[in-house]
Amino acid sequence: MSEKDYSKYFQTTYKPDEKKKKPKSAEDVGYSQKEAKRRGKEEIMVVNFDPIPDELKALGNGKTYCLVTFGCQMNEHDSETIAGILENMGYTSTEDEKSADIVLYNTCAVRENAEDKVFGHLGALKAVKMERPDMILGVCGCMSQDESVVNRILQKYQHVDLIFGTHNIHRLPILLRDALYSKEMVVEVWAKEGDVIENMPKVREGGLKAWVNIMYGCDKFCTYCIVPYTRGKERSRLPEDVIAEVRDLARQGYKEITLLGQNVNAYGKDLTDREYLFGDLMDDIRKIDIPRVRFTTSHPRDFDDHLIEVIAKGGNLVEHIHLPVQSGSTEVLKKMARKYSREQYLELVRKIKQAIPGAVLTTDIIVGFPGETEEQFQDTLSIVEEVRYDSAYTFIYSPRHGTPAAGMEDDIPEEVKKERLQRLIEVVNRIAREKNEEMRGQIVELLVEGESKTNPDVLSGRTRGNKLVNFVGPKDCIGKFVHVRITEPQTWTLKGEYLALVEV
Ligand code: SAH
Ligand code: SF4
Ligand code: F3S
């Protein structure tokens, strides 16, 4: 990795020992969201993670880290890498923020309430930091890539020791060393990236289900969304690297993988040396001996017929498709720059349902986008009725710093937004309940994940469609596949009756 010239990424790293002026804003450390928006033509380089230098390998011996994750699956998976790096430096994990030697917040910037939570934690930790000045408090993840957040931390949360961005995770050993040996905040946030870093250490939880990144970044620039700024441009991992990782997970006995990306079905578009898209990757992964393969998130615009055809082959490719719609109104979709109309979305759903019987469709929906009329909101209610989603994540629009929508007049009163959300949730829940009701009496295959959270006598598992089913059964089926009969469908979960262990 050392031959890479990072200067072209417009960043400067603030290192306290360089005698530069102490940074007061993101600009002073060379980070700007405008730069993050630019999509350059630089070659994407696939580089190997530099081994952790020997002198840093024992840095954490006898010490603990507490890593708190606030974001999406991608964020969770990044946390697995961060944990991998820290454990390779000798640190062990703890859940206690108050006693940990390192506290790291892996943050999410997608909505304001996600950010508020982090600022709450940062505020609360100030007293702990005063008492134990030797602890390291760090902020990473998507909020670090938001200029306004970096400014706020630099100005108001000076007890933070370290800020690093989503493109800087592989630099953690060095950054941590800098933070430990300096009295001032270490900030490294790169606006640009061109790299795919392979072979970073990872600590995966549980041994049953694993996330596998297939691509990074997003080039869609939906007008409300901060992710293209926080995660950089779309870049795919090489198919051979993804496949090797999946094979390795299969060998280790993992039962389910989820292919991850902000926009997984844009996979391969940036691979200049070959014609190989997401459908091709899925078709190759289908042949690997891992019982279940999921993916998230797919964008309706990039959902091509070949991908539908491949998913329809079934086998280990499960029939659950998370297909964010965001709005049912073509005009709103246009303002969101989603690049499809209501009709195109519905046509895609029709094709999916025809090719993949029993497909479980889930979605994301935003209410109260600037200028959304009551009628346009009703288009959202009606698309939910038409598609009949099994479940949906529903959100109130939250203006994000630096995005085009933040410049639009946020003209819907808060009460109206809340009321729309409530009405939407009612429809979503009613349909979810009806869809679950359709499963009454059916025999389904579950991957048994463990004891239910509320009652250790009850086990829970997930169907291929990702529905959570609780049942009473022998403990030794944890980690295995079973058949159960659905006896009592509810809105969010179902109850079942244990039938038998199955080989998958
Ligand atoms: N890449 C995924 C989604 C990532 S963000 C996709 O395109 O589907 C997850 C969800 O958060 C989005 O689908 C959207 O519904 C919601 N979201 C994103 N930005 C938002 C904002 N500014 N306000 C409210 N919800 C938002
Ligand atoms: Fe955000 Fe749109 Fe990209 Fe999803 S596709 S991450 S909503 S910009
Ligand atoms: Fe949040 Fe970043 Fe994921 S903004 S949703 S953690 S990509």
Automatic annotation (TrEMBL):
Positions of region (Disordered): 1-34
Residues reported in the UniProt entry to bind [4Fe-4S] cluster 2: C218, C222, C225
GO molecular function: tRNA-2-methylthio-N(6)-dimethylallyladenosine(37) synthase activity
Domain Radical SAM core, first and last residues per copy: 204-434
Compartments reported by the entry: Cytoplasm
Keywords associated with the record: 4Fe-4S, Coiled coil, Cytoplasm, Iron, Iron-sulfur, Metal-binding, S-adenosyl-L-methionine, Transferase, tRNA processing
Coiled coil: 418-449
Alphabetized SMART domains for the sequence: Elp3
Catalytic reactions of this protein: N(6)-dimethylallyladenosine(37) in tRNA + (sulfur carrier)-SH + AH2 + 2 S-adenosyl-L-methionine = 2-methylsulfanyl-N(6)-dimethylallyladenosine(37) in tRNA + (sulfur carrier)-H + 5'-deoxyadenosine + L-methionine + A + S-adenosyl-L-homocysteine + 2 H(+)
CC cofactor note: Binds 2 [4Fe-4S] clusters. One cluster is coordinated with 3 cysteines and an exchangeable S-adenosyl-L-methionine.
All residue ranges annotated as the TRAM domain in the record: 437-500
PROSITE patterns linked: MTTASE_N, MTTASE_RADICAL, RADICAL_SAM, TRAM
Matches recorded under InterPro entries: Elp3/MiaA/NifB-like_rSAM, Methylthiotransferase, Methylthiotransferase_CS, Methylthiotransferase_N, Methylthiotransferase_N_sf, MiaB_methiolase, rSAM, rSAM_horseshoe
Enzyme class of the recorded protein, top EC level: transferase
Domain MTTase N-terminal, residue spans: 63-181
Top-rank taxon: Bacteria
Subunit structure: Monomer.
Function (record text): Catalyzes the methylthiolation of N6-(dimethylallyl)adenosine (i(6)A), leading to the formation of 2-methylthio-N6-(dimethylallyl)adenosine (ms(2)i(6)A) at position 37 in tRNAs that read codons beginning with uridine.
Family membership noted in the UniProt record: Belongs to the methylthiotransferase family. MiaB subfamily.
Name of the protein this chain belongs to: tRNA-2-methylthio-N(6)-dimethylallyladenosine synthase
Lineage start: Bacteria, Bacillati, Bacillota, Bacilli, Bacillales
Gene name in the database record: miaB
